[in-house]
From TrEMBL:
Keyword Coiled coil recorded: no
Entry keyword annotation includes Hydrolase: yes
Superkingdom of the organism of origin: Bacteria
GO MF entries: hydrolase activity
Pfam family membership, one: Hydrolase_4
Keywords for the protein's UniProt record, in alphabetical order: Hydrolase
InterPro entries given in the database record: AB_hydrolase_fold (IPR029058), Hydrolase_4 (IPR022742)
UniProt protein name: Alpha/beta hydrolase
Domain Serine aminopeptidase S33, chain residue ranges per copy: 80-186
Length: 275
């Protein structure tokens, strides 16, 4: 009579392990591809209306990958923005997102990551950090030093921007729709799984933010269903002064760029004059 309860427990445990394994597979199947969803084709900047006036710039990583970005030098303002786009974006979308800043006279360098827009390599967390550093060096070769740079990250790109802000003495950091970490986002969707053991690329903005010591602007749409706004506000709470938070009422994850530009351009204008 004792064997039956034990057998029942073993069967229940077995189904539990199967469910856990299925959940783990689901995370690998859903999170990993959606984290990196690159467009596959390169388009010259001259073929894109929003990129008129931009030119191609090459950036070579320490590992030897040669990547192409688009660059519009500053015309009337003292700073140049390095823009790190989101997961499913590329240079074409990035040009449209940053048009207001170019029109305001700021320089803009659109960073392209490995595996995106037809570039060589396969995306990974450490790889994207290497790509970002390569574009910092490329901008330096154009005569722009880190103290004249403002790092601008959107969505996935906020992970790269925050990381580089801990490494270079930049003039400022702007984040649109930032997250605490990829783990935190996934944990919210799958609270019963050991996400930290399953998600390889975490982009842990939360642990790095206390090490950022430049002026910070965070913008987040209040209707964002991809990265919950509470992630942006929690990241803001971890940041050092000077910092500013702008909640963009009614904006979602994909339509907050125009409203963010309206607050970001005045914020840029209040930065100390470039040395």
């Amino acid at each position: 009579m004792r064997a039956a309860p034990r057998l029942g427990l073993l069967i229940a445990a077995g189904f539990g392990l199967l469910a856990l394994g299925a959940g783990a597979f689901e995370i690998h199947a859903r999170v990993t591809p959606s984290l990196y969803d690159p467009p596959a084709q390169y388009v010259p900047p001259g073929d894109v209306e929003a990129a008129r006036g931009m030119r191609e710039v090459r950036a070579v990583t320490r590992g030897g990958l040669a990547l192409r970005g688009w660059y519009a030098p500053a015309t009337a303002k003292p700073y140049t923005l390095l823009f790190f786009h989101g997961s499913g974006d590329g240079l074409v979308k990035a040009a449209r997102m940053t048009t207001p800043f170019v029109r305001s006279g700021y320089g803009v360098l659109l960073v392209e990551f490995r595996g995106y827009s037809g570039e060589p390599g396969t995306p990974s967390e450490q790889g994207l950090y290497q790509d970002g550093r390569a574009f910092v060096r490329a901008l330096q070769s154009q005569g722009v030093e880190p103290k004249q740079m403002v790092l601008f990250g959107y969505s996935l790109g906020t992970g790269v921007a925050v990381k580089l802000a801990t490494e270079y003495p930049v003039a400022g950091l702007m984040l649109l729709a930032p997250f605490l970490s990829i783990n935190k986002i996934t944990q919210h969707e799958h609270p019963w799984l050991p996400v930290e053991l399953l998600v390889k690329d975490s982009y842990d903005n939360a642990s790095r933010m206390p090490n950022v010591h430049c002026p910070l602007l965070i913008g987040h749409g209040t209707a964002d269903k991809v990265v919950p706004v509470r992630q942006g506000t929690a990241l803001f709470d971890l940041a050092n002064q000077p910092k500013a938070l702008k909640l963009l009422g009614g904006d979602g994850h994909l339509n907050a760029f125009a409203d963010f530009a309206k607050v970001a351009i005045p914020w840029l204008g209040k930065l100390p004059p470039s040395p």
